[in-house]
Amino acid sequence: MYAGGGYGSNMIYLGSTISRDQSYGYGSLSYGFRSEFYATFSAVHLSGITPYMAFYIGSLNYSHTFNNWFDISAGIYRYQVVPSLTDTLFSSFIYGDVTFGFDWKILYTKISAGGLFSEENQAYFQLRNSRYFQTKEFFRKNANLSFDPYINLLSGTLTQVKTNTKTSVMITHPYGHWKRNNPDGVTTTYSKKFGIIELDIGLPVALNTDLMTIEAEPSYLIPLYDDSDYPGAKGFIFLISIYFRIL
């Protein structure tokens, strides 16, 4: 059994901000069984938002390592927003994915395929390369520092927006309210296509002991579609978390 909490500068999920570009704090409780099955419940607070807990996250995860170079994992996640905030934040949704991991010794590659179920169902694909390493033990061999730099490429559904005068491309927000009202005399049509959404680069650094982990994760997001009318999330994001093993 683990308890945790943390603070982030912005919560980006599948290429979109679900904290509306606001900082957030969270608390979580997680139960692990045989280091393969985990059930987690989290509550999230957004700055300046009432009620205090804006939405909740429940997840079930399973992972299995077949040998020293191949593993698989699967997860299902429920994001449940407080009813009074559905028009302000997002519509509640479910996301599920399956991931295949390949350890090339120099790099660790994760290939994930997932589906999101909400107002509009969508598919996503992620390709992540990372390189985990850690320092030698210190504090009488009770602690170490670990590093897991990564590069992640996210693909999913993009929406092409055509008006009388121009064509734009934007991220499709299936759990948000993204269609806009047209000015007088302007007609708009929407069409969808599957494409690359973003590239994100991060460097999680963690202090690990037998009973506690403190992790800081700076990352940088680069949208890979170019449209100034519907800009996506971009720039630095910072997350710091702490976890305690309580049982």
What does this structure look like?
The chain is mostly beta strands and 247 residues long. It has a single domain (2-245), classed as monomeric porin ompg (Porin, Beta Barrel), CATH 2.40.160.40. It is 0% helix and 61% strand. The chain has no helices and 18 strands. It has strands at 2-8, 12-13, 16-17, 24-33, 37-46, 55-65, 70-81, 93-103, 108-117, 122-130, 133-134, 143-147, 150-162, 167-171, 189-202, 205-209, 212-223, 235-245. The strands form two sheets. It has a twelve-stranded antiparallel β-barrel. The protein has a two-stranded antiparallel ribbon with strand order 2-3. The radius of gyration is 20 Å and the shape is globular. It starts with a strand and ends with a strand.
Q: Number of folding domains?
A: 1
**Mind telling me the CATH superfamily name?**
monomeric porin ompg
Report the average pLDDT across residues: 90
Low-confidence stretches: none
Structural class: mainly beta
